Fold:
Amino acid sequence: MDKKNLDLLLIKVQNGDENSFASFYVETKKGLFSFLYTYCDNYQTCEDLLQDTYIKVRENIDKYKAHSNPIPWLFQIAKNVALNYIAKTKRTSYVDFAENEKIGGSYDIDLETNSILEVIKTKLPKEEAQIVLLHLVDGYKNKEIAQIVGEPIGTVLWRYNKAIKKLQELLGDYK
Amino acid sequence: MNEEKLREILNKELDDKVPNLSNKILATPIHRKDSTIKNKTKTSLKEKIREFFVRKRNWAFASAAIACMLIVVLSCVLFIPNRNNTQDVSKYTCYVVEINPCVSFTADENGKVQSIYAVNEDGNVIISSNEITKGMAVDDCLRKIADLALKFGYLDSDSTENAIKVSVTNNDSKKSEKLINDTKKCIEKFYKEKGVFGFVVAQNAGLDDVKELLGYSNASSLNDVIKETLNKKSYTFEEENVTDLIKTTVEQVVTDYVMSYKEGVNSYVDTLFDIVDVVADDMNFWALVDERYSQPQPRGQERREEEQNMQGDPSTEVQLAIDALNQISKYVNTIYPIENITDVVTYNMVKAAYDVGKNSLFGNLFSELDEIKTKEDLINYIKDKEGENSQHYNEIMSKIEKVPTKASEYIEKAKEKVKSEMQEKIEQNRSKYDQIRSEISESDYEQYIQRILEEYSSLSDYYKHLKEQN
Structure:
């Protein structure tokens, strides 16, 4: 769904329309879940953060500026929720790429046990993983991704191209 | 694994993992907005203002588009390739632009384009748009080439690996330096304005470089190169090449025809083999039946005697074979019940007929067809074998008649091909090209170039790397 339709849904939610909220949830949950997963170590935590994000959306819906782009707004809430969680637990749960590279060369990726989401999270630096997921899951445009991650559009493109190449090398001919 | 596949698998995975809307979320009250009405009024006014400007801009765009079209049409009419070899070209400059469509153009001392031609097939697609015209400024020409490359998808706005290499050739080395700088600035400006992350490698090209790039092995000076480029046309089918083209096309038609003829004969031979095999299998069954009941087939016995009597008479054997072949073709054509050939004698007859047929008729036919190489060979062969009124003769004559015999026909065909390729590319990239992109700021662009230089020692090295990758 494009940003205009999401904006319309949020305007309706501002008027208390539960059905519009449910539609908004369905349209955005996958992208948001994968984005939050880059901050977590397991699916359970990610589910909790997803839940907290949408609760925050309901609580702060009056602050949403109608006719603007809801995507950066939503992801900013998600980012805040994730960062609060990290601050509370005092640890970063994603694997650092420098560490990862050392592990990377020594074993093959077993896709029977590792999902693609897992591969993206563990094999790419967090910044690249987020850009790749935003691109692939919800098909956000480079400009929107740049707003979400707070980086210039060139950096986003550069990182995406780099990350996709890495993934293609890692996953090879997996079908 | 490509991006599409990744997207598909990832989305499938997430479909299973992402939870549905929970009661806990729904239990949280929605903080409703009170100022909705006030806000709405404000927005609608804003919308009206925006609409007003958009409308105004639409008119401006429409007028600009009409003006551009007029310029293009007029320029196209006025564009005539320069064929004057006597002019002083020592101050001219030759540019070779590689994207991968590769095009080359020459400009006079005032920086006005004098000729342009395609170095490769993709270059033809760029030129076939007819948007580059004689007298155009070099900067405009470079921008146009880059813009068409973007429109046709040779440059990709979603990638950071866009590269344009421009080789500049001029007798005056100082002037060359300036032209290289101008080229670089012009293309970088294009990238920034269009919101495309790409880089440019502009360099001076000496005689040897340009000879290799354009394939001018006979050129002994830069002037020769420029003269040669001035005389080139976009569609490089010259009059003298047409004879070869016709010959090649006719040969192709003849070979295709002979091949399909052979294929037909071959499949006929295969069918005969199949029938013989089926009959042989059938014979085994009937042989068993015969043994079990000890009742030899009287008709079969008669034929066997007949056959014994006929042995040693080749003309009768051939006649027998021809009769049998006719019988086989009846089976082939009508799918006549195969059970009708059930006795050993018929089988032997069919087999013998088949062998005779294969050795004489088909065997010779194959070796005869191998001798057919030219249009005349084929026409004479079919005329001799089947006559001027036969279906095969008419078929081949009509095919050969359709082979173009004039240079203009070949050029027209080439143009049609390139135009349809161009249309296809425009359609494929329309949504990407039409998408409005933000300009790239100086600092973002600097950062991008810096990042390349951090990984590769120079832009040329990165260009080489990308070329090797492709």
Remarks:
- The longest helix of chain A spans residues 18-37.
- Chain A touches chain B through 51 residues (CB under 8 Å).
